[in-house]
Each structure stands twice: as structure tokens, then as C-alpha cells.
Specification:
The complex is a heterotrimer of chains A (227), B (810) and C (166). Chain A has 227 residues and is an alpha+beta fold. Chain A is built from seven helices and eight strands; from the N terminus they run βααββααββααβαββ. In chain B, 55% of the residues are buried. The chains are: A alpha+beta (227), B alpha/beta (810), C mainly alpha (166).
Chain lengths: 227, 810, 166
């Protein structure tokens, strides 16, 4: 069985945030404005985390891109009272907007804070609606949304390979963030395929997961900085 | 209310809703759903899904893009995997390009000013009327035989568009083409000129370097072609066999410093001194590349010239004046760190030192390090990009009036003795425009530049523009400078127009990209190239004959036809094709992937560009265009320029050093005479974040939304202060603080950052617009308003980080 | 408790009215600009002649005037409906077909996937559309998620939420 996972090499990452913008464009996430940002209600399925340690001049800053971890034991799924968020057979944690009642149990349960409530009706100027991606829906006010590993791309990739009568190969399905990464710091693929890059990198001595001790078993694996 | 509690209400609602859903079935359910969902629907597509290759223009980097279209809507931009600049990657600016195309605040057609200048009152006019207005004005000027009184000010423009603008001026009879470029991103170009004799083509072969020593160059944020550097960074870290070390020497812990292997804080403006300290140690310990210096350098040892006068060499100067102790006291970098850097830099080859375009002696000091390790024209070092072929346009025959006009002095050319190394300076132009010396300007055209925002002296620029009776702007957006125009002839955005994009990559290969329309123009805008050609045809005579095509696309085809005829290079391809081309070229062969000109044009559009992936090492006459045909530690070009100047002139332009030292890399404090350290104790350090580098993208909300990882710190301009210092001054996080320089004061919100030096405060550049649409106007502040803009004594270019300030709570 | 009962009744009435209003515009009465005869066209054309992208794209597409003009350059019959069509073509106006089958916005459905790869017939979801002589006022088949799931299950196809939800 396929288990989709992502590896982010922090040693190669340059914190440029191309992934952040690519995600917003691909998934019809509305741009924030000053009021929404000041309320911490802006939606970024993928965002950059910043940790600063030490005092001048011995300062260490870590910049970590954070998508949904797509945990193998997702706390958000356990708390959802209506089954609006589920983990699929290939490990992608989804969010079914039609079912979501906006109770925000999941936003509280998620230790990585990847779930975002739509506090407002998403707004775009009329002109910018032309850039909507037809493969992704617009989420209404009052539902929770999250990173889906661009699962619409998976649907389309499957369709494509079926039409070409072949199996899904590496590179057929890649989320928007991974596709744009200018320093090739992000990898995406099957965590169960021993010949794949992701499988091998996930077993590197530099590999770690965020908040690993919580037992959520994330499928986003980071590679630490340095030699 | 009425004794109805929540429970009853919900029960009643459930009964009523459930009942009606049962009664009316799924269609009603869907309708209910749609109503609740809101009005924003993703339109059901009506056309096929396609992809078109083009070239990005969110910055001058020149990345290849692939735009996904659904019907006639552009819905996503990604990197073109075949394009050699970016190989499929794209930065956040490139990603948000659709927000420039679909910006609701775009100018939708030609506008004519009604009412006062800058009052923002406009009237829509037709293109015919607009062009007629310009032609009438230009004819008037021509009849008075004052053709030299028009000028074109252009931003980062290159290739055919620049050629057409220059050609238009030449044929009309004016020398006044003024190119405004972004200095922060350019690299030490002045040192490159003084030591290697070349004005352009400076590239660093980062992909093969093993040790990168960056003197304040914010490589990952504000380099001129960001994606190339980002890609190289990932490559040297993990993709190739050995891992390169990156050392960032800078007063601020920038993103580059964060991501580098080591950040070395340094007193602002003393980077040159550190470079000389490193040189001192390398020479003293015999770690420099004697082979390179013996064969390719001039002025390293002391020497005697033809008239038997002995001169000091670089070695003597450095050993005498820049011992680690002295350098440490200037720079604040500990002696042991200097020693370690020198040893690592000298022994981890190939090593490369990258600087900024700051003061000339410092630029030279940094560039000299590359020669000391033999990293000039060698893999992993400084390369000189091979010439990009320039297809010839047919010759022009200006008439007598035009010839006379074109021979007038350039309006922006400073007096010969004032700035020794400047051909023309945008700010000189502005001074001239206000004084009317040596002549008054009658008309100014602004193309892809916004001097009122990007210059150090916005009021001065506005005042100068005020004196020019006729200003035409070609901007697609209502920026600050366009607001002062009399006529706006809006250009298409980059996703709607044809254009070539000549550029070189970090390996020194020439590349020409083809930018083609991805969607048909959304509004009544027109390609500035077309407008220029129409103006020329309207004016008639020799002007009309100066342009080979009837419009820009036709001229572009002509241009590429000429490129085809030159018989060089091939269409861009993948990396293995690069190796193949090289192999062929070594044997003197060439096998392009096209046969005829038509096929070339056709496949060019599919692939996105042309290139010639070959670099030849050891072409001495190409790499060193100095009088000695060597790398000059002792710059004879500078000597020749300074040569005639008398003592008092040197004093007047602020050069304190005398004798041979002046022509050698050295360090002198860039300390403006009027600076008052007691009154203004801190140094203002201005940096450019990636999203706003180039100063044209502030109107795109996706970019405004990622200016900081902390949501609270977006949509404004924050000043970085060291926490210790803040404590001393009684400033806490989020406070409004005044930042006051001798020129004025502005308030910013305080952010306490350990990565700021105690005596330096950091402010980002890029926001603070007074125009440019809803997401840029009145967001943040523009720190250039309080920058003093001291001028480099030799080049006359403004130095950005020499301003002293005081800060206090507002 | 009379107040409570009155309020409940009032609420039922209001909701009933709203639902009736919705059902009025939602269910029974979809009007088309032209009384298109599917049966007649079936004799000379396949479904994908007019619904061009059935086999290649997610959406099937409704014909635009250029598609019609390919055959109807000049009048073929003396039907008044064809006259309407020619009028559209002549004036260069787009034919504003009303969509009969609509998906909720958070569902992704690909015609290509189901028709080309899954080899389903059109009528499995659309009913006997091709045999209609005039445009129906409401969808011939009302599909619900259960129908999708049932079919997927019986064919052994994935029923992950994200196989359809987007």
C-alpha cells in the first residue's frame, strides 16, 4: 500500500517561502489583509515557523516550513464529532467541507496548528477570481480547512496514468509546494517504496519529526541542518 | 426570548428542515447547500487545459515559467523545467505573478491628466488621441530644433526593448537614455571594472565553489537573480558529493546569515577592512596562489614603472597596514576568527569572496581576495559571462537636426572632475532637471521605473519632475511617479506581451528567453514597443525608417531571425544536453535542434528560450581588459582617471588617501564629515527582503502576507533592535519608536531581535508606498525618507548604509 | 406553553416557505434558450460531438455557438428552434445553456475518468437523456453520494473521501 509522505531538508531550505505562496495559489486560499492577520486568523496551509535561540552574538535561528504533518495517528480525526476529517487508505488526512460543522475541536487538538477555521467569508476582488484553480473548491465561512498534500493532483495523476495504461511512478504526483521549491529542499513520494528517494531520506541520520514524542507519527520528515 | 430555549429551537428547526428535505429531495438539499456555501464558486471551466512557456518578470532574474491555463484563464505559474536559469523552481515572487496580471488596480487604458499634477484626476482617452498628443508635442520640440530636450528613464530593461528605446532617442536626436538599476543586487561591479576592466558580466560560479565568503551580500534574499542562487545553494549543500561552506559576514542576522554555516557580525561599513585582514594573513602565511599571481596579476609586489619611479604593491601595503590586531579593532571581529577565516578561505578551494556595490576601496578589497586564491576565471570562482549575441537592427540615418541633438551632452552626465567613475547618474539628472543646466528638459518618458519611490530623495525627485512640462508614463500600475505624469500610456503586464530576455547564468552562459503572451490583454493597454514604433511612424522621416517591423512582435521575429543567422547555440535543454553541446563544441561541431528559421521560431516558443552552454577558461584577453591585460591589484584605470586631478579636487570629492594606496585595495572609514556620533549613536542598516527586492511587487497581497513568519509583523514596517539595547532605551516589543536621522524622523514598530547588533538598527526596504493600489498604499514606511544618501566619492552612487540615527519611544 | 407551540408553528411555516421558494427555483423548472432535441441529433452525432470534452477532460462542456455553427451554417430544417440558434450565431451571442446536472462545489468528478477509463455509459448517471425530444425541466436522475459509493463498492474502486471530495 502506498503511504504518501514528505521530506523537507532544512539544510537545503533557504526560507524563501515560495512553497507558501505556491500553496495559496494552487488551493484558492484567499490573501489575508491587515485586520485578519492582526487577529491571527489568516489562512496558510503551509507556513514558515521561526525559532530563535541564544543571545547576541551566539544566536541560532531556525526557519521551518510547516505543512500538515498527515499523521498516521492524527489527533484531529479522533475528536471530529461528524467524521469530517479522516485518514485515507494512503495516509492522507483529509477535510470534507460539506460535513464540517465548524466546531473547531480539531484546530484545538492539532499540536501543529495546521487546521484553519474560516472565520470570514473568503474574499477576492472580482478580477482575481479568474485565477481560481478549478480543481479545488472555495471553502465557505464556518468550516475548517487544511493542507491536503494537493490531493486533487493525486486524482488527476491517477487519471493520467490510467489513460496512459501505466502505474503511478515517481514524479507523477507532486504537491505544488514541492514542485516550486527553488533549492529542491522538498521531496515527496511513497514512504513504503524502498527504491524511492523519500524512503531513503526518511531513514537518514539527520531525520527527525516535529513533536515526535506525542506519538502522532507524522509523515512529514525533516532533515536537520549542518553536516 | 419568549421562553423558547436553544433546545426547543433546534428541535423545531430539525423537524421542519428534515421534513422538507424528505419531501423535496436532493435538488433542494443542493440548493440549500449552495445558498449556505456563499457566492464564490470556482467557475466551471469552459475550455481546454493548456500550458504555455514564457519568462517571468517579477524581478530581473529571468526565470523560465510554465503557465497553466484553463480556457482563457491563467490559473497557475510554475517554473519551466527545461529553462537553465531556474530548472523548474520558482521563488515566491514568481508564484504570485497572477496577482500582477489580475490586479484590480491596474490602469485599464490611456489616461490624460485633468486638473493639478499629482491631484489624481484623470480622463480616459483613446489610444489614437493619446498618441496624437505625444506626436504633436514631439513635433513642436523638433521644430524648435531642441530634440535633445527629451529623455527616457528606464528601469531594469534589456534586449530589444532597450535597443528600441535607445534607437528612438538616437533617431529623434537625443542622447538622454537614463538606465536606473538596482545597486543592492549588483555585486562589486566597480571593482570588477577597475581590476578586470569590464563593466558587466560578473558572475560567481557558486555551484562548483567549496567555500563561499559573503561580505554583506544577502545572497538568498536580494541577489539579482534569486532562483539561480537558491538552486545553487541547495546543490552545494547536499546534491553534489562535497558540501560547501557558506560564511556570511554582515551586521544583521539576515536569512542568508541564518542559513549559512556561520554568521560573523561585523561593524557596518568595515567589510573591506576584514577582507584586507584576511589578505594580510594569507600573504604572511604564504597561503596565496603564487602561480595565479605570477602569471595573471599586476601590482602585487612592489614595482618600478617606465619612468623609474617605484610603486607600492598590494603585498607591501597589506602587510604593513592590516595586521589582524588592527583589523580586529576596526571590524569588531575577534583575531582568532580572522585567522581561522583566512586559513579556511585559502585552503578550501575553490573559494570565492562576494561583496556588495558599496564604497570602491572595499569592493576592491573583497574582489582582491578572489585573485589571492586564484579564483578568477576558474571553476568555482569569479567567471566573466560570455557575450550575449546582439542581433543587429538595420542602420539608421538620422537627419541633421537629430545628429546635432544626439551630440549634445548627456543630461545626467556629471561634470568630468566630479565623479571619476560615473558615465551618468540618475540623481545628477534630477539636479539638472531642477536647475535647467545645461539645458531644460521638455519631455520625459518613464518606463518600468518609479523614481519617486526608489530614490533617496523623493521630494527632490518630485520637485525635479515638476519642472518638466511634459511627462509620459508607460506604467501598468498607478505608482507614485505615474501620478505626476501628464499622460499614462499603460503597457501590458509581462503575462500579456512579447519580449526577449537576454540574460546569463552563474556558469557564464549566454541565454535569450522568449516572453510571449499567456493571455490576450485584459484591458485597453498597449505594448510600449508598439507605442514607440507608432510614435516614430507618426513623426515620419528618418524616424519611421529606423524601425524594421510594423509593430513589436514583427521586430522581435526579425531579431530572432538575425539570431538564427548568426549560427550560434541551441534551444534551451536539459542538463545532459548541456554536456552534449559542450562535447560537440570541443570538436568544433554544432548540432542545433532546428534546421530552418521557421522551425527555430516555432520551437523557440515551445521551449522558452535559446542558449549557448559553453564557457571557455583561460581566454586572457576576454577576462582581463585592463591596460596590463592582467588582474590589477593596482588599478591603472583608476590611476589614469585620477591622474589629472589636483590635490584640492581630491579633497573636494572626499578622497583622503593619497599616493599609490589610492589605486590599491585599502580601507578608509566612510565617515561623512557632518556625522555626529554622540547625537546619533546608532547606524541604520537597510536590507531588502526577497519579496520586495526590486521594489515593484508591494501591490501583491500574497507577498505582503509573507513578509514575516509572525502574522502581527506583516503589513507594516518593523525595526529590529537588539533586546539589551531596547531594555536600556525602555522599548518593548510592538512599541512605536521614532527613528531620527539628521534628515528627518519616521516611526516604526519595534521588534526585539537577538540577531541585531547592539549599535545597529535594521529596517526593511520595500513598503511605504503612497500609491500603487490597495495592498501597497499606506502600508508601512519607506526608510529611504530618512537615509542621508551620502555619495561614493568616486562613482557618485548613493551609499545606503552610512546614515546615523537615534531612536526613542514615540 | 402556548407561546412555545406558537413559535414552533411559526418556525415551521417560515422554513416551509423558504423551502417552497427554493424548490420552486431549484427543482422543477429549468428553462433552456433553445428547445434542443437530443433524439433528433442522436441520429447524426455522438454525445462528444457537442459535449466535446467527455472523453478528455473532467468537465463534459456545453456546446458553444461555434460548435453548432459547424453544422448549422445555413438552415437545415424549418424548425423555429433552429431559427433561434441561427439568430444566436448571427448576432455573435453566446448561447446561455442552463446546467441541468450540477455537482456540489466540494466534489470533483471527472468525465474522462468515468467514460474513457471506467467505460461507463452516459445513461448510467444521466438517464435516457439522448432520447429526449425536448429539454427536461429537471435532471432525469437524481444522484446522491450513496449512489456514487454503491457503484464504487460494487466495482471495487477506492472509496477514500479524497477520491472525490476536494
Amino acid at each position: 500500500m502506498v503511504r504518501w509522505g514528505m521530506v523537507i531538508d532544512l539544510d537545503k531550505c533557504t526560507a524563501c517561502q515560495a512553497c507558501v505562496v505556491a500553496c495559496q495559489v494552487e488551493n484558492n486560499v484567499p490573501p489575508a489583509d491587515p485586520t485578519i492577520d492582526a487577529q491571527y486568523r489568516a489562512i496558510h496551509w503551509l507556513r514558515l515557523l521561526e525559532y530563535r535561540e541564544g543571545e547576541y552574538p551566539h544566536v541560532r535561528t531556525r526557519l521551518i516550513p510547516r505543512p500538515c504533518m498527515h499523521c498516521d495517528k492524527p489527533p484531529c480525526v479522533k475528536v471530529c464529532p461528524v467524521g469530517a476529517t479522516n485518514i485515507g487508505s494512503e495516509g492522507i488526512v483529509d477535510q470534507i467541507y460539506g460535513r464540517c460543522i465548524g466546531c473547531r475541536y480539531c484546530t484545538t487538538a492539532c499540536p501543529y496548528t495546521v487546521k484553519y477555521m474560516n472565520w470570514y467569508r473568503p474574499r477576492w476582488p472580482e478580477e482575481m477570481k479568474k485565477a481560481f484553480n478549478p480543481d479545488v473548491t472555495i471553502r465557505p465561512k464556518g468550516v475548517v480547512e487544511k493542507c491536503t498534500f494537493c490531493s486533487h493532483r493525486l486524482i488527476k495523476a491517477r487519471e493520467r496514468v490510467r489513460a496512459e495504461a501505466r502505474e503511478l511512478g515517481p514524479g507523477d504526483y507532486i504537491p505544488a509546494c514541492v514542485e516550486t521549491c527553488p533549492s529542491n529542499a522538498m521531496y515527496f513520494g511513497d514512504l513504503e517504496n524502498p527504491n524511492g528517494t523519500v524512503f531513503q531520506l526518511a531513514r537518514s541520520h539527520r531525520a527527525f519529526k516535529l513533536l515526535e514524542d506525542l506519538g502522532t507519527e507524522p509523515k512529514v520528515i525533516y532533515l536537520s541542518e549542518g553536516e | 426570548m419568549m421562553g423558547i430555549n436553544r433546545r426547543d429551537f433546534l428541535t423545531a428547526l430539525g423537524v421542519a428542515g428534515g421534513g422538507s428535505a424528505l419531501a423535496f429531495g436532493p435538488q433542494v438539499g443542493l440548493k440549500v447547500f449552495q445558498t449556505l456555501w456563499g457566492e464564490d464558486w470556482v467557475e466551471v471551466p469552459t475550455g481546454l487545459e493548456t500550458r504555455i512557456n514564457s519568462i517571468c518578470q517579477q524581478c530581473p532574474g529571468g526565470c523560465g515559467i510554465t503557465v497553466r491555463l484553463v480556457g482563457d484563464r491563467a490559473v497557475k505559474i510554475d517554473g519551466n523545467p527545461f529553462y537553465p536559469i531556474n530548472r523548474g523552481g520558482l521563488c515566491p515572487k514568481g508564484q504570485s505573478g497572477l496577482q500582477s496580471l489580475y490586479d484590480p488596480d491596474r490602469i485599464r487604458g490611456p489616461l490624460k491628466r485633468v486638473g493639478e499634477r499629482g491631484a489624481g484626476k484623470w480622463e480616459s482617452i483613446s489610444w489614437d488621441d493619446a498618441i496624437k498628443t505625444v506626436i504633436t508635442k514631439l513635433q513642436e520640440i523638433r521644430e524648435k530644433k531642441e530634440t535633445h530636450t527629451i529623455a527616457i528613464m528606464a528601469g531594469e530593461t534589456r534586449g530589444l526593448m532597450q535597443a528600441l528605446l535607445e534607437r528612438f532617442l538616437l533617431a529623434f536626436g537625443s542622447p538622454n537614455y537614463i538606465r536606473v538599476s538596482d545597486d543592492l543586487a549588483a555585486g562589486p561591479l566597480d571593482a570588477f571594472y577597475l581590476m578586470q576592466g569590464l563593466k558587466e558580466g560578473l558572475v560567481y560560479d557558486l555551484e562548483q565553489a567549496n567555500y563561499i565568503l559573503s561580505f554583506g551580500c544577502d545572497l538568498l534574499q536580494s541577489f539579482w537573480s534569486p532562483v539561480q542562487v537558491l538552486r545553487a545553494f541547495g546543490y552545494i549543500r547536499r546534491e553534489r558529493g562535497s558540501r560547501a561552506r557558506v560564511i556570511q559576514i554582515e551586521p544583521r542576522q539576515s536569512i542568508t546569515a541564518t542559513k549559512a554555516d556561520e554568521w560573523i557580525p561585523i561593524n557596518p561599513g568595515t567589510e573591506g577592512a576584514l577582507a584586507l585582514g584576511i589578505a594580510h594573513l594569507m600573504i604572511r602565511e604564504g597561503l596565496h596562489d603564487e602561480n595565479f599571481i605570477w602569471n595573471n596579476a599586476f601590482g602585487f609586489e612592489d614595482w618600478i614603472d617606465d619612468s623609474r619611479i617605484s610603486h607600492q604593491g598590494f603585498k607591501g601595503l597589506v602587510l604593513k597596514e592590516y595586521s589582524p590586531g588592527i583589523v580586529s579593532s576596526i571590524t569588531g571581529v575577534p583575531v582568532d576568527v580572522i585567522i581561522r577565516l583566512a586559513r579556511e578561505f585559502a585552503t578550501t578551494k575553490p573559494a570565492v569572496a562576494i561583496g556588495l556595490r558599496g564604497d570602491v576601496p572595499s569592493q576592491m578589497a573583497v574582489h582582491a581576495l578572489n585573485a589571492l586564491v586564484g579564483s578568477i576565471d576558474s571553476p568555482g570562482g569569479v567567471l566573466v559571462a560570455r557575450d550575449i549575441p546582439v542581433p543587429e537592427l538595420p542602420p539608421i540615418e538620422p537627419d541633421e537636426i537629430s545628429q546635432k541633438g544626439a551630440q549634445m551632452p548627456h543630461i545626467a552626465q556629471p561634470a568630468k572632475e566630479k565623479y571619476l567613475l560615473a558615465d551618468y547618474l540618475p540623481h545628477t539628472f534630477l539636479e539638472r532637471a531642477s536647475t535647467g543646466e545645461p539645458y531644460k528638459l521638455e519631455a520625459l518618458f518613464l518606463y518600468q521605473t518609479n523614481p519617486i519611490f526608489s530614490s533617496f530623495n523623493p521630494e527632490g525627485v518630485a520637485g525635479a519632475l515638476d519642472k518638466i512640462p511634459f511627462i509620459v508614463s508607460f506604467s501598468s500600475f498607478m505608482d507614485e511617479s505615474s501620478q505626476q505624469a501628464d499622460l499614462i500610456l499603460p503597457d501590458h503586464t509581462y503575462l500579456e506581451r512579447w519580449q526577449d530576455d537576454p540574460v546569463y547564468n552563474l556558469k557564464g552562459y549566454p541565454i535569450i528567453g522568449l516572453r510571449r503572451p499567456v493571455v490576450s490583454p485584459l484591458y485597453d493597454t498597449r505594448h510600449t514597443g508598439d507605442v514607440i514604433i507608432q510614435l516614430a511612424r507618426g513623426l515620419g522621416g528618418s524616424l519611421a525608417q529606423a524601425f524594421p517591423g510594423k509593430d513589436f512582435p514583427e521586430t522581435l521575429q526579425y531579431y530572432f531571425q538575425k539570431l538564427f543567422e548568426q549560427g550560434r547555440g541551441d534551444l534551451v535543454g536539459q542538463e545532459f544536453e548541456e554536456a552534449w553541446s559542450k562535447l560537440l563544441a570541443r570538436g568544433g561541431w554544432r548540432s542545433p535542434s532546428y534546421q530552418t528559421a521557421e522551425e527555430f521560431w516555432q520551437r523557440l516558443q515551445e521551449k522558452g528560450g535559446w542558449w549557448e552552454p559553453i564557457y571557455y577558461y583561460g581566454e586572457g584577453e576576454r577576462v582581463f581588459k585592463t591596460p596590463s591585460q592582467r588582474f590589477e591589484f593596482y588599478s591603472q584605470i583608476l590611476k589614469e582617471r585620477v591622474g589629472v586631478l589636483a590635490e584640492e579636487r581630491l579633497k573636494a570629492i572626499g578622497v583622503q588617501v593619497r599616493g599609490d594606496k589610492l589605486f590599491l585595495p585599502h580601507w578608509e572609514a566612510v565617515k561623512p564629515p557632518e556625522s555626529n556620533e554622540e547625537q546619533y549613536p546608532f547606524i541604520l542598516n537597510i536590507y531588502q527582503p526577497l519579496v520586495f527586492a526590486g521594489l515593484i511587487n508591494a501591490s501583491q497581497p500574497f507577498l505582503q502576507g509573507i513578509t514575516s513568519p509572525a502574522p502581527l509583523e506583516r503589513w507594516d514596517c518593523w525595526i529590529e533592535i537588539n533586546p539589551e539595547l531596547a531594555k536600556k532605551l525602555g522599548i518593548s516589543y510592538g512599541d512605536q519608536v521614532w527613528v531620527e536621522s539628521p534628515r528627518g524622523k519616521l516611526s516604526f514598530r519595534a521588534k526585539l531581535v537577538e540577531g541585531a547588533m547592539p549599535e545597529v538598527v535594521n529596517i526593511p526596504l520595500g513598503v511605504g508606498h503612497k500609491a500603487l493600489g490597495r495592498w501597497a498604499k499606506n502600508i508601512g514606511k519607506n526608510p529611504l525618507l530618512i537615509v542621508e544618501g551620502h555619495l561614493e566619492p568616486l562613482t557618485g552612487r548613493p551609499l545606503i548604509n552610512t546614515t546615523r540615527v537615534k531612536i526613542y519611544r514615540a | 406553553m402556548p407561546k412555545k407551540i406558537i413559535f414552533s408553528l411559526y418556525l415551521v411555516l417560515v422554513i416551509g416557505a423558504v423551502v417552497v421558494y427554493w424548490s420552486k427555483i431549484g427543482e422543477p423548472n429549468i428553462k433552456q434558450p433553445i428547445q434542443f432535441n437530443h433524439l433528433k441529433h442522436k441520429e447524426v452525432a455522438d454525445c462528444e460531438t457537442c459535449h466535446k470534452y467527455i472523453k478528455e477532460q473532467a468537465f463534459a462542456s456545453l456546446p458553444v455557438k461555434e460548435d453548432c455553427a459547424a453544422c448549422h451554417e445555413s438552415p437545415i430544417t424549418d424548425s423555429p428552434e433552429e431559427k433561434k440558434l441561427l439568430d444566436f450565431i448571427e448576432k455573435g451571442k453566446n448561447i446561455s445553456w442552463a446546467r441541468l446536472y450540477e455537482l456540489p462545489p466540494h466534489v470533483y468528478f471527472s468525465h474522462k475518468r468515468h467514460v474513457t477509463i471506467g467505460d461507463l455509459e452516459c445513461k448510467s448517471c444521466h438517464g435516457y437523456m439522448a432520447d429526449q425530444q425536448s429539454p427536461p425541466k429537471k435532471p432525469l436522475v437524481a444522484l446522491m453520494m450513496d449512489d456514487c459509493i454503491a457503484c464504487h463498492r460494487s466495482a471495487g474502486i477506492k472509496t477514500d473521501c479524497i477520491a472525490c471530495h476536494r
